[in-house]
């Protein structure tokens, strides 16, 4: 008796397997269609930016023809932007602010999350919830009182003012991510470390930080993104070009009165988006692992 | 190495729930003591109080003569092995074992010597460079033990270390733990809910229930001379049978009447001990191996009566026969060659030299 004969004897099982695979095929179709649809929606703006950045001002202004095609591609917008000392100042400001903010955020939120997740003290639970709730208050509401605070500190129109202000956005969420991650680390691990002779600080440095590295990287990426892409606060607090970060520098300084240098704006925006893209490309896996860890392991 | 003294130790949680209700226990130097009992009996809490991971509400614990109530875990000179191993996932096996010594600033050469020695004892030398995730459950447990051994502490604490392993590996690691203790001889406190583990490993077994110690003693003593119904039923597998019975004084001798009008005489050696129970309802306790098919009738104090098996379980080296007497399940151990059938009455022999009488109200074994 051949194998195929045996298969014919068991139609029930195979019919079921067939229906399962057809269900799976449907699920795949639906998934592909919705993914392609979302990819088009999300990719259209950057693609359009890229196309526009390759056009001369004359071509951008020309309403004839398809705007999605480039007739005379040129790199002059990129050359102009990269040789423009103001643009390089914006870039430097953004980099400086972001590095400082990420460093401050990670130190504060790692310590806060460790304390809230592990050192049981009165009110720690309420405090943890409170930290997250502060993240829910929109920055468009906060910038008015913050303006007074930053002004009081004498940091208006200074990139240092932004270094002080951005952590109000980054610290709560990063702390929340890390609380989830730290909570997913088994209690026995700290107990083993305590018995092995570790102090609380050694436990944090030698056990928690290395074990929670995916969570820390996720939080770092978040702080980086928020700080790099912040728009409302710099618009409110910074007015002179030499203190501006990229986000507002590109839109405010490349527009002269009513003249929009669209090609340069797009080239500048694309270059500004490059660092986050690179960071995400390298650390994507950690980011996802970090965000989901608390939910699945906790 | 050192003795451990537990004096009137109480653990109460917020809300007044007492997990441990004032226990006393002296553990001698080099001794292997197993705390055993059902979930929630306070055994793990007691161990964690010795480790310093739980605060002591009342009483005191001394290790090596020093009261450690207010001493943090790291200064108690103890090492602990956890149920889920608690290996540091980002460190290699070597680093895991060396961690405690590194924190205590031991010289590198000394650390290397100790780790290699422990690895040799546990047969994990080829694994020293691996990360915990590349190890099997049994190997992880060995590393966890290695981490304890390298420290050469006064006391080893084991918190259900074998519960995460499959049955076969559990038996293997049990032997391994006993072997290690025979080599290093460190005072050991071991917590388990598995009475077989307790019996096989312990110099002395501590049976706990509801936050108190029911009985302390060597395994054989607990098995043959339990002091309470709880210990009698907890130690031994299958458990001891408890059959409702009435003790009567008749024609100068004591008799025990069991359901189905089965009457067995109390052995002469026990008459004095059981005299006070005359005329009262008691529980007749007998282990399955003392309720067998009829054999060796030339011994004293063997009672023979007829029972009807209801369920037969062949185990290979023995056969278990289950039946019910007035709602009490009775298990008998018979030779696998003895013919037995559900529903067909057969003769059983009870070895009354091993009988127990238990007061159903106080739960005490007479």
TrEMBL record, chain A:
One of its GO terms (biological process) is transmembrane transport. Residues 91-283 form the ABC transmembrane type-1 domain. CDD domains: TM_PBP2. InterPro entries: BP-dep_ABC_trans_perm (IPR050901), MetI-like (IPR000515), MetI-like_sf (IPR035906). Pfam families: BPD_transp_1. Coiled coil: none annotated. GO terms for cellular component: plasma membrane. The chain crosses the membrane at residues 26-51, 97-117, 126-147, 159-183, 204-231, 261-283. Its main location: membrane. It is a multi-pass membrane protein. The keyword Phosphoprotein does not apply. It is found in: Cell membrane. The keyword Signal does not apply. Keywords: Cell membrane, Membrane, Sugar transport, Transmembrane, Transmembrane helix, Transport. Belongs to the binding-protein-dependent transport system permease family. This is Multiple sugar transport system permease protein.
TrEMBL record, chain B:
Keywords: ATP-binding, Nucleotide-binding, Transport. One of its GO terms (molecular function) is ATP hydrolysis activity. CDD domains: ABC_MalK_N. The keyword DNA repair does not apply. The keyword tRNA processing does not apply. One of its GO terms (biological process) is carbohydrate transport. Residues 4-235 form the ABC transporter domain. PROSITE patterns: ABC_TRANSPORTER_1, ABC_TRANSPORTER_2. Coiled coil: none annotated. GO terms for cellular component: ATP-binding cassette (ABC) transporter complex, substrate-binding subunit-containing. Belongs to the ABC transporter superfamily. NCBIfam families: PRK11650.1. This is Carbohydrate ABC transporter ATP-binding protein, CUT1 family (TC 3.A.1.1.-). It comes from Falsiroseomonas stagni DSM 19981.
